[in-house]
Amino acid sequence: MASLFTGRVLVVNNGARDELDTDRELGCSLENKVLLLYFGSGECPRCQEFSPLLRDFFVRLTDEFYVERASQLVLVYVSQDETEEKQTKFLKTMPKRWLSLPFEDEFKRELELRFAVSDVPAVVVLKPNGEVIVGNAVEEIRRMGPACFRNWQEAAELVDRNFLLAEDFDDLARRSITDPIRRLKYKLNKKTKNEEKKEEGEESR
């Protein structure tokens, strides 16, 4: 999926407005995930109705308050806002994990044409390889909420790396916490054994 944005910059919707502009950064953020392209506008009445639903949908699948591990889901906002100020104002009300194209990037128009987006709001759901799962998932999200992600996950045939990475991390955490204790215990045992040997040597004299 990173290939769709090769040579582009994606902006993270956090206070720092960090940019993902290298193949490695884009790969880490987009690969092996279901990608949502959200074509919308902060001032469109239909978008004003739908955007809070999409925000809640995304948060419930990715925020640790609701789920133990974030779902393999990423969203890129393809702005249809009239000005950069309006885009910025809208994004301030949306999740910090959302990504967006810079306002001035003409690639937004190319994405509209590629995915035949003629009206907003529109949510295009893509597999990691760029194939379309759903041309416009707005009604599906309205009707099913977060439950529809399972259908997309199956269609995308994602490798469930979240659990593997989490297990590896847990093992590493356990090792990092207990290793100093084990090393201390080993030193104490070694010291005790040396003292015992020393005492045995003194007794044999």
UniProtKB/TrEMBL annotation:
GO terms for cellular component: mitochondrion. It holds the Pfam family Thioredoxin_8. SUPFAM superfamilies: Thioredoxin-like. Residues 32-132 form the Thioredoxin-like fold domain. This is NXNL1 protein. InterPro entries: RdCVF (IPR029520), Thioredoxin-like_fold (IPR012336), Thioredoxin-like_sf (IPR036249). It comes from the Eukaryota. GO terms for biological process: photoreceptor cell maintenance.
